[in-house]
Amino acid sequence: MKFNLESLKFDENGLIPVIIQDEKNLEVLMMAYMNLDSLRETLKDGKTSFWSRSRKKYWLKGETSGHFQHVKSVFYDCDKDTLLIKVEQIGGACHDGYRSCFYTELKGDETRVLGEKVFDPEKKYK
Amino acid sequence: MKFNLESLKFDENGLIPVIIQDEKNLEVLMMAYMNLDSLRETLKDGKTSFWSRSRKKYWLKGETSGHFQHVKSVFYDCDKDTLLIKVEQIGGACHDGYRSCFYTELKGDETRVLGEKVFDPEKKYK
Q1: Using one digit for the tens of pLDDT, what is the confidence trace for A4-47?
Q2: Sign of CA dihedral A40, A43, A46, A48
Q3: A96 to chain B: closest CA residue
Q4: pLDDT digits over B83-111, tens only?
Q5: What is the domain extent for residue B51?
Q6: Of B28, B95, B80, B20, the residue nearest B50 (C-alpha)
Q7: Is residue B37, in this structure, part of any structural domain at all?
Q8: Does residue A1 fall inside a structural domain?
């Protein structure tokens, strides 16, 4: 069935949330937002591009850090308002130096950091 | 470190997106939204509760279908604006009858349905 990207449900700001998952170990790496243009660019380029809500600009993941995400497969959900993209993650997805942005577990009212840093964010982004 | 749930970043509607992942096979099952009250209820009850944006009400996942999600672990991301909850999913997460809401793959401009239905939604919700 031919699929029209415009049939996806972008929110009132023209954005759709995108869950990024490691295609190999299935770890959820991050969530970010795309607009129609960054989704088209992602599908064309084979690397993820997002719309930064805080900086209000396009953002090719890995442009500064070299930590690109190579797209392996793309899924949308039953409501057509969320995407799931499985990627090959170079380095780490998280700007704090971890492989996944979800490196903090909430247990009761305590938290604990899980996982090791895979790079030094101060060196990477200075 | 003691953690205050109110330090999470809820959006302008008081909501935070929550990725639900199968704790065993690590399949991403769905994404939905919680407000502070439904998050507190989820942590207290051990089963996921969400805020339905379309129906504007609380929603104990599985209340109608019996397809509860038993919480196994809870993570928040580096920006504190997204949650990841690993669950034991009873039945299927998707109201269309699939285990995961992300049952449609987008490949080029074609789509294909992956996965088998685990229940008949017409029987379950009639």
Answers
A1: 999 999 999 999 999 999 999 999 999 999 999 999 999 999 99
A2: positive
A3: B78
A4: 999 999 999 999 999 999 999 999 988 99
A5: 10-125
A6: B20
A7: yes
A8: no
Q: Are B19 and B7 in contact (CB under 8 A)?
A: no
- Confirm whether A82 is domain-assigned: yes
In one-letter notation, the amino acid at residue A37 is D
pTM of the predicted structure, to 2 decimals: 0.96
Domain-located, residue B4: no
Structural domain count of chain A? 1
Collect all residues of chain B within an 8 Å Cβ-Cβ radius of residue A30. 77
The residue of A15, A54, A82, A87 whose CB has the most chain B CBs within 10 angstroms, and thus the best one to mutate to test that interface, is A82
Residue of A nearest to B105 (CA): A75
Confidence of residue A102 (pLDDT cuts 50, 70, 90): very high
Q: Which value does ipTM take for this structure?
A: 0.96
Q: Looking at residue B37, which CATH number applies to its domain?
A: 3.10.20.810
Query: CA–CA separation, A2 vs B22, rounded Å?
Result: 30
Structure tokens at A118: 């895979």
